[in-house]
């Protein structure tokens, strides 16, 4: 059995190691250059690899191919593999064959990283023997080599779901579906919806499916598919039972004959989007019998990943918040909705076909000024020019931070929530967020 790995990142190297451990003849190929640590790992394991090219004679003879989620299906080499009938899998699909652990899978256009980390934290707080993998953390395949965990919490992107076929989750979470990555789906939204709904494949009637009741694409698709699963809606507008909701300052989650409730006021995650993340994570924890006390403790002690409504610091009574991960309009909608003080909003970057009209109501309610941080800000300026008397433009994050402080009053907040990709000025959203944080911290040192 010849296993070829396309892509030598975290997932690809992990899949190569697992393939070797399971007796495959393994070869890894990356058209780019491998990180030094990954090269060292492959060399130490004696796994042959190439970088800077794809040698077709060494790839097209594969029995199976594990493809990096970052490689589109339209790449000619992938097309050739499909045409000759070679099985193309994701690392998740390959690794899932070899684990005895129960699997909790989480997807969604927004919120999946926070929900995955929180679910993992709830299980860890309860003392569960649990691993974290998928679109986050250490390679799932690498962790499966020893297969010592009883549970895995997996963040699943649409690209990973596209090449999953036999994997069966015990608990599946679909947080929401909003237009995103449409360039990978022929600019057809239904194709992207179909991709997200692959999380339901192979679920049994006793398995758990958690979904957001107010997400129209999800509900329309569910009406068509009517899956035979234990379905649990979460909601901010109704009180499903069983399911989860927030009302009167309390989060309530009901799973079969169990009802969990907690006051949301002291919890670290704020805003309606995080209420949904907490509801989903709580129900996922209940689905694997995490005790109420551990859920309460975990919700209270959770620290979110960077660049997601991350407090950076306060200058002259003005709070600065880094939400650089908000690369689409839906994320920004929830971010602005969670603001409870007048807000200087920093937005902009590489537009992805955004419809900014979705933000009109929350922007009018919460935003006092807009700072556009991007190479081409015309679409933002055209849309919001009639709404705000104060709009500034810049291509330097340090200037954006200084402008925001100049426009703010004590008690205001400055929110970096771009609604756009970062690639016009930054390496990625992490780079944008880190530069924003550094600019704020530098200003904190200089402002008395």
From TrEMBL:
Keywords: ATP-binding, Cell cycle, Cell division, Cell shape, Cell wall biogenesis/degradation, Cytoplasm, Ligase, Nucleotide-binding, Peptidoglycan synthesis. Its EC number is 6.3.2.9. SUPFAM superfamilies: MurCD N-terminal domain, MurD-like peptide ligases, catalytic domain, MurD-like peptide ligases, peptide-binding domain. It is an enzyme of class 6 (ligase). This is UDP-N-acetylmuramoylalanine--D-glutamate ligase. Pathway: Cell wall biogenesis; peptidoglycan biosynthesis. The lineage of its organism: Bacteria, Pseudomonadati, Bacteroidota, Cytophagia, Cytophagales. The gene is murD. The keyword Protein biosynthesis does not apply. Residues 106-285 form the Mur ligase central domain. It comes from the Bacteria. One of its GO terms (molecular function) is ATP binding. Its main location: cytoplasm. Pfam families: Mur_ligase_C, Mur_ligase_M, MurD_N. One of its GO terms (biological process) is regulation of cell shape.
């Amino acid at each position: 059995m010849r296993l070829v790995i396309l892509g030598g990142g975290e997932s690809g190297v992990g899949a190569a190691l697992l393939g070797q451990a399971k007796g495959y003849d393994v070869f890894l190929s990356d058209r780019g250059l491998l990180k030094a640590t990954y090269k060292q790992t492959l060399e130490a394991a004696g796994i042959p690899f190439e970088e800077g090219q794809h040698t077709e004679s060494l790839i097209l003879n594969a029995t199976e191919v594990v493809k990096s989620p970052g490689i589109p299906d339209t790449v000619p080499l992938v097309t050739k593999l499909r045409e000759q009938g070679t099985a193309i899998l994701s690392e998740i699909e390959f690794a899932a064959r070899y684990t005895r652990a129960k699997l909790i899978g989480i997807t969604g256009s927004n919120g999946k990283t926070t929900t995955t980390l929180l679910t993992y934290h709830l299980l860890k707080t309860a003392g569960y023997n649990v691993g974290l993998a998928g679109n986050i953390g250490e390679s799932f395949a690498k962790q499966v080599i020893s297969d010592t965990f009883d549970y895995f919490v997996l963040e699943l992107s649409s690209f990973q779901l596209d090449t999953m076929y036999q994997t069966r989750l015990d608990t599946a979470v679909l947080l929401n579906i909003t237009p995103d990555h449409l360039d990978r789906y022929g600019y057809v939204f239904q194709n992207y919806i179909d991709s997200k709904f692959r999380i339901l494949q192979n679920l049994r009637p006793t398995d758990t499916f958690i979904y957001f009741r107010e997400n129209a694409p999800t509900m329309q698709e569910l009406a068509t598919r009517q899956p035979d699963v234990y379905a649990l809606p979460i909601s901010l507008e109704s009180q499903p039972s069983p399911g989860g909701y927030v009302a009167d300052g309390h989060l309530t989650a009901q799973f079969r004959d169990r009802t969990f409730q907690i006051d949301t006021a002291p919890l670290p995650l704020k805003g309606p989007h995080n209420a949904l993340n907490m509801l989903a994570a709580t129900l996922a924890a209940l689905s694997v019998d995490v005790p109420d006390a551990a859920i309460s403790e975990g919700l209270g002690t959770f620290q979110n990943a960077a660049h997601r409504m991350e407090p950076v610091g306060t200058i002259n009574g003005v709070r600065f918040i880094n939400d650089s991960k908000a690369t689409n309009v839906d994320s920004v909608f929830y971010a602005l909705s969670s603001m409870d003080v007048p807000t200087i909003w920093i937005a902009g970057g590489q537009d992805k076909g955004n419809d900014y009209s979705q933000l009109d109501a929350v922007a009018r309610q919460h935003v006092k000024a807009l700072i556009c941080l991007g190479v081409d800000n015309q679409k933002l300026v055209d849309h919001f020019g009639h709404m705000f008397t104060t709009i500034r433009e810049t291509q330097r994050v340090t200037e954006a931070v200084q402008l925001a402080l100049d426009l703010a009053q004590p008690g205001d907040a400055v929110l970096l929530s771009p609604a756009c990709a970062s690639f016009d000025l930054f390496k990625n959203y992490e780079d944008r967020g880190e530069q924003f944080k550094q600019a704020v911290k530098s200003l904190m040192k200089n402002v008395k």
